[in-house]
Design brief:
Length: about 180
Amino acid sequence: MMTRVRLTYEDYAVLPDDGRRYELHEGELSVTPAPGLDHQDILGNLFVILRGHVNARGLGKVFVAPVDCILENITVVQPDIVFVEAARRSIMSKRGIEGPPTLAVEVVSPSSTAIDRRRKLQLYARYVVLYYWIVDPPATTIEAYQLTHGAYREAGTLSGTSVVSLPPFPELMLDPREIWPTP
């Protein structure tokens, strides 16, 4: 019989800096390769848009990966973008975000689709991340979810060429032309 080892933040903190993305999902190590260039382009565009909106209105702080979200000692994730509302700044520390951020954004890659759409959806709901966006580059969509009674419900979608706002930012109009890279 094989004994399963549950890793902790202390184990995680000594992992090598080798270009891979390490996370702990309830004590289990998750490793994904560095994302591709389209992923990074979209991530950069979305980060600039969100940071500008949040900073201009004093809504809180926006961070881009890698930043540790320490949901508990055995669960450490690195969403692509993290938003912490101003009223919750106390969860920010030298180590990272110590508790659930207000919003976690994941840009799916071929190697992370199942993780982002299933495993992280469940983890973020379990640890009470109020809002979760899944950015799907091939589909050119952003699916926004809001936590309601312990489960996510779809709260909006950016698709096509329509300019829309997504929770938790009702005043921010997202223009798809500013997000998706042009060929």
